[in-house]
Specification:
The chain is an all-alpha fold and 337 residues long. The protein has helices at 7-26, 35-44, 52-85, 98-111, 120-143, 150-174, 179-187, 195-213, 216-222, 226-231, 236-258, 264-276, 280-304, 313-333.
């Protein structure tokens, strides 16, 4: 773990690496474009009368890459919040069933024609939020809330995950026309990214993340115990409500446009704690950029591994995150956490 003086230089280095890797990934794909040409195309800007490479960069790759960066940041911050909120290192939107709830909300809306092609760019996030928030409330109600045994809460989340996945599979069999879209949400993908979706994702993500940024001190206090938080003047119930609402909102909009991308919220906060420690003032920013870096790498692997086809990005993050989850379960069982 680094000292406080090294936090800013390391964060700056991480941002620079992220920017350089973003430019590099713009050159990767079925159409091989040199990095120097990519830089030239970025300087030119989008144009309807431009070269094919310009259209590839501005209409396909750029919105996709930026979407992966924004989505990764959102998921990592959400995971950090859930781990502090539930005081459990294994908590994240995917494991708790929040992501599956969002996907179920979208699948439900699509099956019953509640989402139209015209206004879907706003209806999809609303349907996802309804599903995610409903899942969060159901888990909290059935498990007895965040003050009870967090292992019980996790088990309810896993069980709900299975139930919602089964219901989405049922929708696929009942309406084959929705098969492809439901498969996308169940496996995660940035293939359908667009500037319009990115705009909505960024706006909602910004509105949800800003309140969390001002609650980093409260997140530190909540990790101790409720009595300490109350003695320090923290409105525990109010803070928990804001944390739950904001993290559920930003998770659901990510699920709406990118599908279920698991384990990003689990992996990144743990890795960043090893670098900067448990204080959320630093952990917040490092998780923000660390999540962006992880999803950008995962999406690049998904695009290139079986080119010209591509893998769902959720497969890549699951392969990376599942071993860590197993390790955490073993350590938790041994009582070392």
């Amino acid at each position: 773990m680094v000292n406080s003086r090294a936090v800013l230089p390391i964060l700056t280095l991480l941002i620079v690496i992220l920017l350089l890797f973003t430019i590099t990934t713009l050159a990767l794909g079925a159409a091989n474009i040199k990095v120097s040409e990519v830089i030239k195309i970025i300087k030119e800007g989008p144009s309807s009368e431009s070269s094919p490479n310009n259209k590839i960069i501005w209409q396909l790759r750029f919105p996709r890459i930026l979407t992966s960066v924004v989505a990764g940041s959102i998921l990592a911050v959400s995971g950090m919040v859930f781990q502090a909120l539930f005081r459990n290192p294994m908590a994240d939107p995917y494991v708790l069933g929040i992501s599956s709830g969002g996907a179920f909300g979208v699948a439900f809306g699509a099956y019953f024609n509640l989402i139209s092609a015209v206004t879907g760019v706003w209806q999809i996030p609303l349907a996802a939020f309804a599903g995610s928030f409903g899942s969060a409330l159901l888990i909290l109600t059935l498990s007895g809330g965040v003050r009870r045994n967090t292992t019980t809460l996790l088990l309810f989340g896993v069980a709900l995950n299975f139930l919602l996945s089964a219901l989405m599979t049922l929708f696929m069999f009942l309406d084959r026309s929705q098969l492809q879209s439901i498969l996308q949400w169940s496996m995660g993908s940035f293939a359908t990214s667009s500037w319009q979706k990115l705009k909505v994702l960024t706006i909602v993500g910004f509105l949800g993340i800003i309140p969390l940024l001002f609650l980093t001190k409260e997140l530190d206090i909540l990790l101790v115990d409720e009595e300490t938080a109350l003695s320090l003047g923290v409105g525990v119930n109010k803070v928990r409500t804001v944390l739950l609402l904001c993290s559920t909102l930003i998770t659901s909009v990510t699920v709406a446009f990118c599908g279920i991308i698991g384990f990003v919220g689990l992996i990144v906060p743990h890795i960043m704690r090893l670098i900067v420690g448990p204080k959320h003032k630093h952990l917040f920013l490092f998780s923000l950029f660390g999540g962006a870096f992880l999803t950008l790498i995962s999406d690049t692997i998904a695009r290139m591994a079986v080119a010209p086809s591509e893998l769902p990005v959720g497969i890549i993050t699951a392969i990376a995150g599942s071993p860590l989850f197993i390790i955490l379960l073993v350590r938790h069982k041994r009582g070392s956490l």
